[in-house]
Amino acid sequence: MAHKLTPFITAAQIAERNAELGREISRSYQGESSLVCICVLKGAFLFFADIIRRIDREIEIDFVRLASYGSATSRSEDIVFSKDLEIAIEGKDVLVIEDIVDTGHSMDFLLHVLRRRNPKSLKICALIDKHERREKAVTVDFAGFKLNDGFIVGYGLDYDERYRELDGIYELSNES
Ligand code: 5GP
Ligand code: MG
Ligand code: MG
C-alpha cells in the first residue's frame, strides 16, 4: 500500500525549537562538570547532531542502540543493548537524547541500566514526547514537541528504515 505523507513540523520550526532547547539545556547545566550527551540510535541521529551544536558548554558524546525482541509491542523486559556506550559515565552529568518517548518502555530500560553506572545526574531530551501514551513513569526533562497520537516520520524517524532523510517531520498514513 502507498503511503501518504502529511507535513506536520517544518524544518524551520524544528530549527527554531532546537535553538530554544539548546538554550534551556545550557542554562540547566551551567557551571557544572563534564556533560555526556548520549544519542539513542538510529532515530535520534539528526536531532542529536543539531542539539549538541546548540549546547553552550564542553561535552562528550556517545551512542547506544536498543533492540527489542519477542512481541512487536516492546516491553522493557524484552529490550537489550545492541550497542552499548563506550565511555564511562560514573560521576558525570548525563543527557540522553532520544527521538520519541512513547509508552516509555525503551527509555525506562535505558534509564535503569544507566543509573546502575552511578552518573552524577541523568536527564532526558526528546524531540517528541507522546506523554499521553505512557505506560511507564518516564518524564522528559527537555521536550521538543508534544504529540497525542499518529505515526510520524522524517528528520531521523523511519517507517521500516524509510524516510529518515527528510528534513521535516510528516504524519504517515495509508493512501486510501
Ligand atoms: P516506547 O518504548 O516509548 O513505546 O517507544 C520507543 C520508540 O518507538 C521510539 O523511540 C521510536 O523509535 C518508536 N516510535 C514511537 N512512536 C513513533 C512514531 O510516531 N514514529 C516513528 N517513526 N517511531 C516511533
Ligand atoms: Mg527511539
Ligand atoms: Mg523505528
UniProtKB/TrEMBL annotation:
Listed GO MF terms: guanine phosphoribosyltransferase activity; hypoxanthine phosphoribosyltransferase activity; magnesium ion binding; nucleotide binding
Protein name in the entry: Hypoxanthine phosphoribosyltransferase
Entry GO CC: cytosol
GO biological process: GMP salvage; guanine salvage; hypoxanthine metabolic process; IMP salvage; purine ribonucleoside salvage
Keyword annotations of the record: Cytoplasm, Glycosyltransferase, Magnesium, Metal-binding, Nucleotide-binding, Purine salvage, Transferase
Catalyzed reactions per annotation: IMP + diphosphate = hypoxanthine + 5-phospho-alpha-D-ribose 1-diphosphate; GMP + diphosphate = guanine + 5-phospho-alpha-D-ribose 1-diphosphate
Gene3D superfamilies: 3.40.50.2020
Annotated EC: 2.4.2.8
Annotated pathway: Purine metabolism; IMP biosynthesis via salvage pathway; IMP from hypoxanthine: step 1/1
